Amino acid sequence: MPENFERQFNPWAKQEDVSSTFDPSQEAESIQTPNSEISIKENGQEPVMPEKIEQPQIQPVGTPIEEKSESQTIETPIEKEEFVPEEALAKIKEAPKEERREKLADFKERLALQKESLAKMQETMIAKIKESPDMPIEELKAIAQDFSQKNDINTEQLNRTNEVLDRYVARHKLIKETREKYPDDRELFKALYGKYPDGKINVVVNPLTISIRCYNLHDYAFIRYEGWQNNNFHPTEEQLSRVMPSGGGTDIPCLIPELESLIIVENPQAVDGKEELLETIHSHEEQHIMNRLFGKEKSIERIYTTLEEMREKLSKTKTEGKAMNLFTKGFRFERGKKERETKEELLAYFKSGDNLESVARMLKGNNSGQYNYFEKYLKPDFVNHLVVNLYGEKYRTPIEKGLKQVFETEYHKLIDEGISAFQYLMEDDKYSREQAIAILMQEPLGRWAKVTERILKAKDSIRNRQEKQKLTELEESQAEAIAENKARDAEKNPTPDLQKDDSSYKPDNELEEDLSGF
Description:
Structural class: mainly alpha
């Protein structure tokens, strides 16, 4: 049991969404109009995903996801002031009530487009880095500057992009200098782990990673168990059997700490040396490194409740359901500590193109203990600890129900909805794989479904408006063409002078007499 456990399990934060970041559109849900509350909620229910996402359809085994490097493009409105979501939302709240609905609709569209633009800029910068790893930082930033000017990206977001580029250049420089210092694979291995490898290894240097492929399981186990910290370390048979199924890993300690987060270690034995599977492993681990470089969620300050305050709140509850609600808030906070790891794994599996049905089973802990992040919370011993040591027997049932709801039912739903969100972003070539990953990377797992829904709704709204505008312009153009044709016909065939045609001409008073009979 971890230290400060009682405090950790009583962090009844005021904000329930443990993993959420600031979402201006979420705050916008409380804006009032004269007749109703402007909200994406319908009948008091907040949508989680579009209708078809309510029951996620995970791709069957072997079904490839078609993708294009060029996604459908929706042009960002031009000649508008810089869009800063927090400031724009504040202005909506200050606007006259009769104007808020229209302004809020525009806000949601621009927010969705901004997220899309940031994803496309990330994809652009990654492509440039892979194409020209040694491109000077000035040129990289110039590309970002040009992209931001043509899209709805504000100054703060551009500055954050430049910070990412600075980190990339520094890390790339470190990798180059390390390889230049240790051009021999075995010497590099010794510099990192304190001894020469027992078997064959292969080192590949990329713009942002150093990949070490260990063809001897003892070498792989030595790295994974940090054997360099013990001069007499030799992996046991049990340790070898544990690492055997592991295809690879990153962020493993070594003798050059600055390189820890940039090294990928691969185990060909896990996939019988099959090259295509090794490439999948490499792609998966590389995405973890990209997540750390580009991904940055805004943190939310939490207000904690002490054990005594929690007991006082429980004493005032009159029903089992209300007691369970109190417990679930704290359990969600605990779950949030690991949700980021689940998010990182999902993004890595999205990148490597693994079968998503299998990925869902793994992350739920059905196939392996590797991802059983919350297994201990569902065991009787843990329930007994909370009941006996902290809250008392009368709360056993709400504790058991709350743990199952948060760490099983809700968590499994998060995984399914997260996978569905990725699939719907890529469906019908809406976004490329890189763009879909970039959109989700900036959001906590618990908001993937909602963010995806809003982005797709905004794209549909903009597309419908553009199509309507095109239709209107076409109709106006056709009307003008018809009028011009009539004018030309009139010039070629002028109307006869009726007054000179005695057989057809009648004075006005006679015409009126003729019409009076109808």
